[in-house]
Amino acid sequence: MQEENEIAIEFDPGIIRPNVNVNNWEELLGKMGDLLKEKGYVKETFKEALINREKEHPTGIQVGELGIAIPHTDAVHVNKTTIAMVTLEKPIKFELMAEDGNTNAEIVFILVVKEPKTQLFFLKRLMAMFQKIEVLQKIKEMKESKDIINLLKQELKV
């Protein structure tokens, strides 16, 4: 059994995308679902499950002035654990997680988790990072996947 500080994650520069241009969250999740499938991280069922879960259980969060979303779905649709992340060229609406309304998301973290208990680990680490608005602003401004990955590794302690 893995301890909390031993969770293995592979950060892939191909799924850490700065300045993505999409019109809405469904288009974003569709594109990222296809990319994750192409790279072998997820099963054929992932994209549809991700979109359906976002419809039923929205994942938008307002952090100060910044909108964030953390879409995810059940482990049964995943081959290998990772986190995909995009910053958006222009914000897109996501419904808020815990209340009515929506947020104009500028950063989206897609959790791709094979073990259900690992999902809680990543959510806790992300929520701790979300308390640091300066870190989120840095991520938003970064133009290179490798720079974002280095910052995420440092902040998520993985």
TrEMBL record:
Pfam families: PTS_EIIA_2. CDD domains: PTS_IIA_fru (cd00211). PROSITE patterns: PTS_EIIA_TYPE_2. InterPro entries: PTrfase/Anion_transptr, PTS_EIIA_type-2_dom, PTS_SugarTrans_NitroReg. Residues 9-155 form the PTS EIIA type-2 domain. It comes from the Bacteria. PANTHER family: PHOSPHOTRANSFERASE SYSTEM MANNITOL_FRUCTOSE-SPECIFIC IIA DOMAIN CONTAINING PROTEIN, PTS SYSTEM FRUCTOSE-LIKE EIIA COMPONENT-RELATED. This is PTS system, galactitol-specific IIA component. It comes from Maledivibacter halophilus.
